[in-house]
Amino acid sequence: MRSTPLNSPTMAAKKATTPATSDAAVKAKTGRDWAAWFELLDRSGAHKLEHKQITELLTGKHTVPNWWSQMVTVEYERARGLRARHEKADGFSVSVSKTVATTLGDLYETTANATKRKKWFPKGVFESSSQTKDKYLRGAWNKTARLEIGFYAKGPGKAQIALQVNKLPDQTSVDAARATWQSALTKLQAQLEKPSTSGFDSVVKAFAKDPTVTPPGTGKGFGSGALKVGKKIFAMISSRAEFVVKLPSARAAELVASGRGAYFDAGRGKPMKEWVVVTGGERLWTPLAKEARDFAASGSR
Fold first, then answer.
1. Using N-to-C axis directions, what is the helix angle for 23-30 and 66-79, rounded to 10°?
2. What does the pLDDT read at residue 9?
3. Fewest CB atoms within 10 Å of the CB: 5, 91, 168, 185?
């Protein structure tokens, strides 16, 4: 039983809260909408029960699936003033996320690798407890809190990081943690989306002994930072920090279909069918640049 139980459902501190999930969604998964669940739980005396007892009531007597029993319990507790927003059974939590123009692998590596993580993580001590490549990373944060970080592909050249901080002591900590981690994710985004000079330098170096290739830095204006055969650009870093190559349209379509590329848009709203932004990671840059060099040398327009 709760240590400070309310006397009856009618005396419970009913609050005007908005559940995180719609009536249609909860009804589709549990058979009742929010109002029906709240009324049923009031009649069952749930306002006097601990969180675990309410979930057991829902799963045992009403056969609500485990995840949804937690959801219904949390929303009931919020609606009856038994739980503050962001509060869980083991403390408060907050979630932040960011979609970044990078690959899923690079996003995961920049977070899971301790050296790379140090460049954008806020000050504190993270102790990893479990992880799965390109999926999640979990561990203790500053000894008392917990971090759960998920990674998701969001289409060609984009990936999302979703971070949740659990076991915070109070609402004030929630607000502080949100600001801290939003700032950290912005720093991560800037780090991953800046031009990869080291990656492009490796591509340039691969053509150092090819007398037909003009390296970047020669001439002025558009194309001065690109690799060229004669006067034809075949590989470059765009103004949006994208590695772009020119390939036969069929090859370009193959890369796009496989998720390793996206059609390049020069800002005119019309994708260019032979120009591809490479999204499959820097390991593909040099091989595709060589294909692009051969295509340019073959007399393509």
1. 140
2. 44
3. 5
* CATH 3.30.530.20 residue window(s) in the chain: 90-193
Query: Residue 207: helix, strand or coil by DSSP?
Result: coil
Supply the pLDDT for residue 102.
Answer: 87
- Residue that the structure tokens 């460049």 belong to: 119
Tell me the pLDDT tens digit for each residue of 157-208: 789 999 999 998 887 888 888 899 999 999 998 888 765 667 889 999 999 9
Strand ranges across the sheet with 213-214 = 213-214, 227-229, 232-237, 243-246, 272-278, 261-264
- CATH assignment, 197-297: 3.90.1150
At 80-94, the pLDDT tens digits run 887 766 666 667 888
> What does each C-alpha distance from 31 to 36, 54, 64, 72, 108 come to in angstroms?
9, 17, 9, 12, 38
CATH 3.30.530.20 assigned to domain 90-193? The reply is yes
